[in-house]
UniProtKB/TrEMBL annotation:
It comes from Selenomonas infelix ATCC 43532. InterPro entries: DDH_dom, DHH_sf, DHHA1_dom, Oligoribo/pAp-PDE_c-di-AMP_PDE. Pfam families: DHH (PF01368), DHHA1 (PF02272). This is DHHA1 domain-containing protein. It comes from the Bacteria. Residues 236-311 form the DHHA1 domain. Transmembrane segments: none annotated. GO terms for molecular function: nucleic acid binding. Residues 18-157 form the DDH domain. Gene3D superfamilies: 3.10.310.30, inorganic pyrophosphatase (n-terminal core).
């Protein structure tokens, strides 16, 4: 059931013990929204913790309290008055959903493709980031942002907007970011930290780009990484940012071997609805940034995704 922000704020206010979680393969917005709200709730005297069922990428070490994010331990039960699932629908939270006994579950998200399965859902697809929602939520709840909370929220807004360059950036996004900068967030420190790569990661990107292929008269740029190549392409972080600059491209994506007959697809577009393509394969996302998982042989998966993209391009 969709609820208003005020109702969501009331649910949070009514809870004393809160568990926050988000999606697997965590990004700046999933980590920023959960960790930032954890800081705020603790400052309000509540008992709050963050559970994420995945490894936290190194670049996020810059965020205050990052070491307090817990990975759910197998066989352990967690209890809370409220479980808040941020930046994703309930089913993509790994083992967390089943490990938590919460009186109520609240979903806060900005993905148009949210399956709306949550009993309580505050969804705002007009916002660039879940952290942008968090900014409003804290305003509704009252009290002030600490620099710790502000730093986390700013990071999610910055990463989900490509540092305020993507089409999802609105006057509200900028005003919310300005509020956080006024509290003391240093945009340069976050930007530098988010861009940081090890030598090995840079070399992995170089190896990935060597596999670049163009399709549909240059409207699509893609990198396909099979099981063999996956050994040397250890990261795809930043790969799509490198592809999107190619003149004439409408859609850029990669397809990477995950495990036996399973491939991860990540897409970016300049207007073509890639979330519809992803949804066709059980994935989701936003119009210009989406992902899904494909099954089958490498050649089948490659053909399938290319055909689906071709169809969407010709809509
Ligand atoms: P990325 O390509 O960076 O992994 O994801 C782009 C966007 O699509 C993000 O907002 C992400 O949450 C969403 N997304 C990626 N993969 C999936 C998926 O398998 N299911 C759903 N529902 N959303 C996804
Ligand atoms: Mn996210
Ligand atoms: Mn997000």
């Amino acid at each position: 059931m969709k609820i208003a922000l005020e109702q969501a704020a009331q649910m949070v206010a009514d809870a004393q013990t809160v568990i926050l979680t988000s999606h697997i393969r965590p990004d700046g917005d999933s980590i920023g929204s959960t960790l930032g709200l954890m800081h705020y709730l603790r400052e309000q005297g509540k008992d709050a913790r963050v559970l994420i069922d995945d490894e936290i990428p190194r670049i996020f070490r810059v965020l205050p309290g990052i070491e307090q994010i817990e990975r759910p331990a197998e066989g352990t039960r967690y209890t809370a008055d409220l479980l808040i699932v941020c930046d994703v629908e309930l089913k993509r939270t790994g083992a967390v959903l089943d490990a938590v006994d919460a009186v109520r579950v609240l979903n806060i998200d900005h993905h148009v493709t949210n399956d709306e399965a949550a009993e309580y859902l505050y969804l705002n697809p007009d916002y660039a980031a879940t952290c942008e929602i968090m900014h409003d939520l804290v305003h509704v709840m009252g009290g002030s942002f600490s620099l710790d909370a502000a730093t986390c929220f700013y990071t999610g807004m910055a990463t989900d907007t490509g540092f305020f360059r993507f089409s999802n950036t609105t006057p509200h996004t900028m005003r919310a970011a300005a509020d956080l900068i006024e509290i003391g967030v240093k945009p340069n420190i976050i930007a530098v930290a988010m861009e940081l790569k090890s030598y090995d990661e840079v070399m992995a990107q170089v190896r990935a780009i060597k596999n670049l292929e163009m399709f549909y008269d240059g409207r699509v740029a893609a990198v396909f990484i099979d099981e063999e190549r996956a050994k040397e392409v250890t990261t795809t972080e930043g790969l799509l940012d490198a592809l999107r600059v190619i003149e004439g491209t409408q859609v850029v994506f990669f397809m990477k071997w995950l495990e036996q007959d399973t491939y991860r697809v990540s897409m970016r577009s300049k207007g073509t609805n890639v979330s519809r393509i992803a949804q066709g394969f059980g994935g989701g996302g936003h119009i210009r940034a989406a992902g899904c998982t494909l099954h089958g042989s490498f050649d089948e998966a490659k053909k399938t995704i290319l055909e689906a993209i071709g169809e969407e391009l010709n809509r």
